[in-house]
Amino acid sequence: MLIVHHTPSPNCQAMFEAVVSGATAPEIEGVQVVRRAALAATASDVLAADGYLLGTPANLGYMSGALKHFFDQVYYPCLDATRGRPFGYYVHGGNDVTGALRGIDAITTGLGWRRAADPLAVTGEPAKADIEACWELGATVAAGLMED
């Protein structure tokens, strides 16, 4: 599983760490988790993974430029080869994450990826329940790959 993230703030960092913790929980067996910053992830990383977990802040009402850059780099090289692969994602914003959710949904629909979990949208400082939901998101996407 490939986790692609842009983690510029303490709130995003807390969410990212919880996602990784869930994805690498002891009960998740046989799933290798690879973490890449959005500006460092490549088409080769995407092609080598069986599933994806994406994380971004909502900046100016949209996904971060780093995650958009990731999609721009991998879209056509991965378009046919990754159709049907499972994914999940989380977004953190100060107040409105609607544009980020819409953008990620549009791009992943174009790629033909299959949503393995509902997106997780958090505004403001993540509460304990939000961090637990991040853990669940990571565990859910990873557990789905155990069956494949």
TrEMBL record:
GO terms of molecular function: oxidoreductase activity
InterPro entries for the chain: Flavoprotein-like_sf, FMN_Rdtase-like_dom
Pfam assignment, any one: FMN_red
SUPFAM superfamilies: Flavoproteins
Residue ranges annotated for the NADPH-dependent FMN reductase-like domain, each copy included: 36-94
Superkingdom of source: Bacteria
Protein name, UniProt field: NADPH-dependent FMN reductase-like domain-containing protein
Source organism: Streptomyces lincolnensis
